[in-house]
Amino acid sequence: IVKKEYPNTPIILYISGSAGVIERMAKTGVDIISLDWTVDIEDACKRIPPEIGIQGNVDPGILFGNKGSIKERIDYTFNKAKVRKYILNLGHGILPGTPEENAQVFFEYGKKLIYWFLILTYKNLLITGANGCVGQYLIDWFLKNTQFRLYLMVRDQNKLPLSVKSNKRVK
Interior CA angle at 168 toward 167 and 171, to 5°? Predict the structure, then answer.
C-alpha cells in the first residue's frame, strides 16, 4: 500500500529473531531488511538478494564496551556486508543504561564510513520507531545532512520536537 502511494520511499522490514525467515522477508517487496544482532550478517548476505539492502545487526551490548571495541565491531560488520547497500544500526535498539558517550562513538564513527552512504541514493525515507532515541538521531541527521523527505511512523506525534513537526520535509 505504501509503495503505491510513495514508490520512491524505501521500506524497511524488521522482525526480531528473524534468522529462520530471512528468505520470506525478502519476498515481501521491501527495500531493506533490518537484522537483529542474533543473525549472522555474512550468512544473511548470502540469503538476501543483492538488490535488497541490509540494516542493523550490531549487538547493542557492544555499547557497554570500550571505544576501541565499538569501532572494531563496526568495521567487522561492514567487512561482512561487503558491497551491499547497508545502513549501520544496532540489532535491536539502545539498551537501558547504555553510556551516552559510547552511543555517540557508535554514530560518529559510523558516519565516517563510506559504506554507510550507499543508501543515500534514495530521495525519501520512511523511519519507523521515530519516537526512540535512535529514531530521533536519524531524523536530526537526515534533516541536517540531506534533502530527503522523511515519512515517520510514530506511536505519539506529541513527543516529536516542534522543529520536526513543523518541518515541511517531514510527513
Answer: 90
